[in-house]
Amino acid sequence: MSFERIREKLSILADAAKYDVSCSSSGSNRTNKNKGLGDTGTGICHTYTEDGRCVSLLKILMTNYCIFDCAYCVTRKSNDIKRAAFKIQEVVDLTINFYRRNYIEGLFLSSGIFKSADYTMERLVAVAKKLRLEENFNGYIHLKSIPGASDELMREAGLYADRLSVNIEIPTVSGLKLLAPDKKHEDFIKPMLKVKNEIIQYKAEKKIIKSTPIYAPAGQSTQMIVGATGESDKDIMYTANHFYKKYNMKRVYYSGYVPVVEDTRLPALGSQVPMLRENRLYQTDWLLRFYGFSVNEILNDTNPNLDIDVDPKLGWALRNLNEFPIDVNTAPPKMLARIPGLGMYSVGKIIKARKFGRLNWNHLKKIGVALNRAQYFMICDANEWSHKDLQPAQIKGLILQNSKGKFRASYSNQLSLFN
Amino acid sequence: MNDAKNLIYDGTFNGFLTAIFSAFDEKIQVANIQNEFTAQQGLFSDFEEVYTDDEKAKRVWTGIQKKSKQASSSLYFAFLSETDGIELLAYYYIQKLFSHKQKVHLNYADDIVLKINQLAKSVGREKHRMEAFVRFQMTKDGIYFANIEPDFNVLPLISKHFKDRYADQQWIIYDVKRKYGLYYNLKIVETISLELNKAHMNSIHSNDAFTEEEHDFQQLWNDYFKSTNIKSRINLKLHTQHVPKRYWKYLSEKKAI
Q1: Cβ B108–A19 below 8 Å, yes or no?
Q2: Per residue in A334-354, pLDDT tens?
Q3: Which helix (H) or strand (E) holds A14?
Q4: CA distance B11 to chain A (A)
Q5: Measured distance CA(B37)–CA(B28) in Å, rounded
Q6: CA–CA separation, A328 vs A351, rounded Å?
Q7: Is A283 within a domain?
Q8: Would A304 be classed as within a structural domain?
Q9: What is the pTM of this model?
């Protein structure tokens, strides 16, 4: 292959693919077969770009030609940019050569939609098939499910890919109508539903017939753009919750909108990317998936948006002081998980350590509890607990005074004296 | 204090376990356990050299594993940290394991247990980093070659990962700092030492030892690394936190072009 031509294509098609935030390479159980190449595991981030995001997969588009004109998308039909397309063999060669040098965990292949949904999906599947069958490649493959693709193709995709994803992009149906008038909500849902059902069926068959070919072992994910259509945090998280529950999503990703094209329906070019908001949404996502919170505890009609200055768990705790203090020496794990400043690792350590004796402040500090936040919400084997009569606002003030948040500059109203 | 002894071993894990065996077997009052390269005379204690005995080492190791698999793995990881005084700390840890019926290795409120776990965690992190940061370069002999310079002695820990993953290619991972490496010959992984004139850091010039194609792929990888960055989200602090500068010299995506 001509090196310079590949170089140009790679630059164009990697640049266009980077707004897809998923880079996960974990959750699959594919092992190396017959002394072939590669395996999957708990996921490895091989490097990090200068924006601090992990690089785990070779993330590229098959092509950035597209028949659609979605306002938020950099490859929209009406955008005047350089276009390119990979040949199937070129993607295979790049993947294998990057993988052999330990640059990546595998391939994340997406595409602009050219000709039709099925024609596009067919080419994505062809790459995965070639990697698996001709190269005996057992690394991670993430394929994009093209909205509107047929059930037969989605079935085949799952036989070669570890993960499949459709990005719903806009959390509300009305927002989608406004920004992507050519796309229908049902088109996104259809491949998602097919994959979900195939996974359920696979799991059932696997129990009876051991040799059932594996189907998308790392499940499905989706992504939403945050801050493009004036949606509330509640809109976003309720939608996310719906996808977790209804479609057994492994992950929902939140992507702060990066203005890429001038359009009156969208934030202007040069507007700041809402990174802090994105961070708070991920924190909420974790609370739902690992900490036993339900979404209406954190976001509801009284609180439709997350606090900017404190994390969502602390925000919840301050609104529910009646649940505290919690005794770390006796409380059940699910209550410990609700104490601000306590992560699931600390919870695990506390539960093991407290069998050997009662824990005090010193023990907790050494275990790694963020006492700056946690101390107002727990009691342990010590007499000092003087926070009984503090009001939520006072606690919040004390915590903020004694901490340095990395986003503090973006919301502090305090004038800086020496600037 | 008069009977306290300073045990000297050969620096290997089996040597260390043999020292533990002797300490228990001969009821030695241990003042310190040191490897022969860095041993220093204690003021009030005698030296006793320990000769590595794989049988004795194995007995100790089986004993620890019987207590708890998790404890044995934390202990091994912590040992590979090569931290000053790790041997004595590990000795106290083993003593603790054997003198209690309870699962003391879970008592995170205990200073020794906590310290061993923290060291094991650091080593585990470095192991994971090396699984990420190894950058193979294809030599003209058809071997994928990589230099590393890890903070801790993690080669023994990453061997399996690379063997399982790159089962159909020959590779060498060489620890420049500790002057030994792993060579996978398509069948087994061997420990090797090489006469390297210089470490093969990433370089903007193509290197005679490597294939023509190698330089092209590094170029492509470098380009990819740049195009996948989103400029409006730049966060160099986070970048260097994840990819600390000390590793840059071996990362082909970080070379200046």
Answers
A1: no
A2: 999 999 999 999 999 999 999
A3: helix A3-15
A4: 30
A5: 22
A6: 9
A7: no
A8: no
A9: 0.91
B109 and B29 assigned to the same domain: yes
Average pLDDT, chain B: 91
Q: Exposed e or buried b for every residue in B122-149, given b needs 16+ CB within 10 A?
A: bbbebbbbbbbbbbbbbbeeebbbbbbb
Query: CATH no. for residue A136?
Result: 3.20.20.70
Residue B139 is given by DSSP the state B
Domain boundary among B75, B96, B125: B125
Give CA–CA dist B20/B2, Å, rounded.
20
- Domain shared by A77 and A188, yes or no: yes
The verdict on B150 and B236 lying in the same domain is: yes
**Residue B26: strand, helix, or coil:** coil
**Does residue B85 share a domain with residue B14?**
yes
Best mutation target, B114, B172, B202, B220, to test chain A (most A CBs within 10 A): B220
Q: How many domains does chain B have?
A: 2
List all residues of chain A from 333 to 352 with a beta carbon under 8 Å from chain B: 349-350, 352
The reply to whether A46 and A163 lie within a common domain is yes
Using the 8-state DSSP alphabet, how is residue B171 labeled? E
Name the residue type at position A241.
Answer: N
- Tokens at A300, concatenated: 């509801």
Structural domain harbouring B34: 4-125
Q: Do A152 and A226 lie in a common domain?
A: yes
Closest CA to A222 of A259, A269, A185: A185
| ipTM confidence | 0.92
**Subunit contact B223:A7, Cβ cutoff 8 A:** yes
Give the domain extent around A225: 3-272
Asked whether residue B229 falls in the same domain as residue B120, the answer is no
Do A267 and A328 lie in a common domain? no
Indicate if the pLDDT at residue B1 is higher than 60: no
CA of A181 to nearest chain B CA: how many angstroms apart? 27
Chain B interface test: which of A28, A94, A102 (most B C-beta within 10 Å): A102
Smallest Cα–Cα separation from B10: which of B45, B41, B53?
Answer: B53
pLDDT digits (tens, 9 = 90+) for B195-235: 876 666 666 666 778 888 999 999 999 999 999 999 888 89
Chain A positions in Cβ-Cβ contact with residue B223 (cut-off 8 Å): 7, 10-11, 14
pLDDT confidence band for B54 (50 / 70 / 90): very high
Does B142 lie in the same domain as B99?
A: no
Q: Own/partner pairs for A239-246, CB < 8 Å, 24+ apart?
A: A239/A168, A239/A171, A239/A172, A240/A285, A240/A288, A241/A288, A241/A295, A243/A168, A244/A288, A244/A289
Q: How far apart are CA B177 and CA A416, in angstroms?
A: 47
Tokens (6 digits) for B170: 């020959």
Mean pLDDT of chain A: 91
Are A18 and B230 in contact, with CB atoms under 8 Å apart? yes
Residue A58 in any domain: the answer is: yes
Among B78, B94, B125, identify where a domain stops: B125
- Total domains in chain A come to 2
| B42 vs B127 pLDDT, higher one | B127
Instruction: Confirm if B119 and B222 have CB atoms less than 8 A apart.
Output: no
Domain assignment present for residue A348? The answer is yes
Q: Which phi and psi angles does A253 have, rounded to 5°? A: -105, 150
The band of A185, judged by pLDDT with boundaries at 50, 70 and 90, is confident
